[in-house]
Amino acid sequence: MEQYNTRSNHEIDYRIVGEEMQYVEVELDPNETAIAEAGSFMFMDDGIEMQTIFGDGSSQNQGIMGKLFSAGKRLLTGESLFMTAYTNLGNGKKRVSFASPYPGKIIPLDLQQLDGRIICQKDAFLCAAKGVNVGIEFQRKLGTGLFGGEGFIMQKLEGDGMAFVHAGGHVFERYLTPGEVLKVDTGCIVAYTNTVNFDIQFIGGIKNSIFGGEGLFFATLRGPGKVWLQTLPISRLASRIMSYGSFNRKEEGSILGGIGNMLDGDGF
Fold this sequence. Notes:
This protein has 268 residues and is mostly beta strands. The protein is built from four helices and 19 strands. The chain has a six-stranded antiparallel beta sheet with strand order 5-6-3-10-13-8. Strands 11-12-9-16-19-14 form a six-stranded antiparallel beta sheet, with no helix packed on it. Strands 1-2-7-4 form a four-stranded antiparallel beta sheet, with no helix packed on it.
């Protein structure tokens, strides 16, 4: 049976290369475009034009105020007002590659197969086919009033094209059946489908809060839907690096601590 292309976003092919430090190679037909966050570009074939665009380029018919509002929302997620578009202006197929910023995995997301909408961590987006809308998602239904109604800000990817997000460490997928609940460290969530209900709950008990060594909150994900989780959030990695780079090592000042420092190469 003949299949017809019903995508409104640009249709791109890809391959993911590497194990721990991956990059994604996007293949563009003539006049096809991929968009990416600044700083993710790795290399590209001759014939591809780079252009800085305002926002994500998904709303070309909006007026200037609409484009300004759409792009301005990205500032709330800590991203730039601008993205870079890579367009194949040559003859034949051309390739452009984007690298993940820290050790982990790149996750391909076909939004056409995922009901057109994915919610992800605000720093997870890497690149996408032109036409994919990269916006923000306010999580207003929280199990605690600590956030004062402002919500928990995440990114949302909408459209019917390919999008790519990156995560730290090992990444695994899990499908939640209707009503099934998964409790997750907030930093370990990479993305989830639109049908998953997200909430944040306070970890009860003062001993858990003070002596547990974990955060004061965890996320609850209720099915049905698909979730992607990561084993090494960048915040956890950065915290561990900072602790090793500081002068106040946990075991410093003890004989065993000095021996441990010497064994791991730090000396006394």
